[in-house]
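In the design runs reported in the main text, the only information available to the sequence generator was the tokenized backbone. The following block is the verbatim input for one such run; it is reproduced so that readers can re-run the procedure and compare outputs position by position.
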């Protein structure tokens, strides 16, 4: 083992001009050297085939590979060198640590990357600020928080233009910040992944892997490991419910915006309107998905992932659950005097999500999708052009 570490160090020294690795990146590079000699897990996910294309693991390689890992746990449970073996190989854990650093390093503007260090506090403060904003506005606008005169129409509490004025700038900034972070990430990992441009087949393959959560199937279709050696598809299914539930809610809001501006059809919409169907199905899926992910997360084996990121992961799941539950409660309670209170709760939670989007677990989907795209591009290059080809 010591010999292997010495060889790794020599290889890095020979590289000259290589950007210094952080502790977690260096540990990932060490483990990848062992895996590259072993290659037992080659069929488990995209990370291992991508690893075999390399002889050395520099900063960009490590960030790329870390974001290809879906933390399914399969390679930890299969590994003969996992702790307590002296090699102490725990790929899901070290990759999770590097991913955490990716989010921080590529946050935009860079100074706000620090928000990842105290993410649960940031989330709590954002939620408190969102709730305070809408509670104060409801009171200031004279309707109060317990009001039977609003007759099921939330625009009687907050006018449409006020809501657009509050949410649109925050949402657009979040998109800009995520886009800039992603741009810098791709700029760094692009040259490390052949530098070739994305083609349509590569983009389609990456999109399919994202939409199916292909690499949460453990490589054999039976799923991930969660608390023990047994395979389970639960994480993949709950993740799907969360993702598609969120997308349906987003589609409902986007369609409602089109109705409002293009056709002059004002909310509220009720069943069987398309926005209401999308919102209701999406809200229920999001609630079930996040409740399931919370349950599984609490039961996960402690060696999976990075324990330091647990508050961020659970906080994000809880916020999505609150958004879906309060949205459905708002719909069910729209004809009651509690509507204003429920609306404040829902809007405050959505505002907290928008405020923290570029500095929370939300970012993982963007970085993982970008890594999968580069993987689909890289694997299409001639083998002879890649340094670690067999
Ligand atoms: S995780 Fe373990 S078994 Fe899998 S390739 Fe690495 S060293 Fe080999
Ligand atoms: S934890 Fe799963 S996704 Fe991550 S490297 Fe191991 S097998 Fe691949």
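Verbatim output:
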């Amino acid at each position: 083992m010591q010999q292997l570490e010495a060889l790794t160090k020599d290889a890095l020294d020979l590289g000259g001009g290589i950007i210094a690795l952080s502790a977690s990146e260096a540990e990932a590079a060490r483990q990848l050297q062992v895996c590259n000699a072993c290659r037992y897990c080659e069929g488990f996910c995209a990370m291992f085939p991508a690893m075999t294309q390399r002889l050395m693991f520099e900063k960009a390689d490590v960030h790329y590979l870390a974001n290809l890992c879906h933390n399914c746990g399969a390679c930890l449970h299969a590994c003969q060198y996992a702790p307590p073996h002296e090699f102490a190989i725990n790929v899901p854990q070290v990759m999770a640590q590097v991913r955490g650093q990716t989010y921080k390093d590529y946050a935009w503007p860079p100074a706000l990357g620090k928000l990842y260090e105290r993410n649960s506090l940031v989330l709590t403060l954002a939620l408190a600020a969102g709730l305070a904003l809408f509670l104060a506005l409801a009171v200031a606008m004279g309707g109060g928080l317990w009001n039977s005169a609003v007759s099921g129409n939330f625009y009687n509490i907050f006018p449409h233009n006020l809501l657009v004025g509050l949410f649109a700038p925050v949402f657009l900034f979040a998109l800009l910040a995520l886009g800039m972070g992603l741009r810098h990430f791709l700029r760094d990992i692009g040259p490390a992944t052949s530098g070739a441009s994305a083609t349509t087949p590569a983009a389609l393959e990456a999109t399919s892997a994202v939409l199916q959560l292909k690499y949460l199937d453990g490589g054999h279709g039976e799923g991930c490991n969660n608390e023990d050696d047994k395979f389970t598809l639960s994480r993949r299914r709950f993740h799907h419910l969360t993702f598609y539930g969120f997308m349906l809610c987003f589609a409902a809001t986007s369609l409602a915006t089109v109705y409002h501006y293009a056709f002059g059809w004002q909310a509220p919409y009720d069943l069987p309107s398309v926005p209401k169907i999308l919102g209701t199905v999406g809200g229920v899926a999001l609630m079930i998905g996040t409740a399931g992910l919370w349950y599984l997360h609490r039961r996960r084996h402690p060696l999976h992932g990075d324990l330091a990121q647990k508050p961020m992961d659970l906080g994000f799941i809880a916020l999505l659950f609150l958004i879906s539950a309060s949205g459905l409660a708002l719909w069910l309670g729209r004809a009651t005097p509690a509507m204003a209170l429920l609306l404040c709760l829902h809007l405050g939670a959505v505002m907290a999500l928008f405020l923290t989007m570029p500095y929370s677990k939300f970012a993982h989907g963007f970085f993982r999708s970008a890594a999968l795209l580069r993987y689909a591009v890289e694997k299409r290059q001639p083998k002879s052009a890649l340094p670690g080809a067999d």
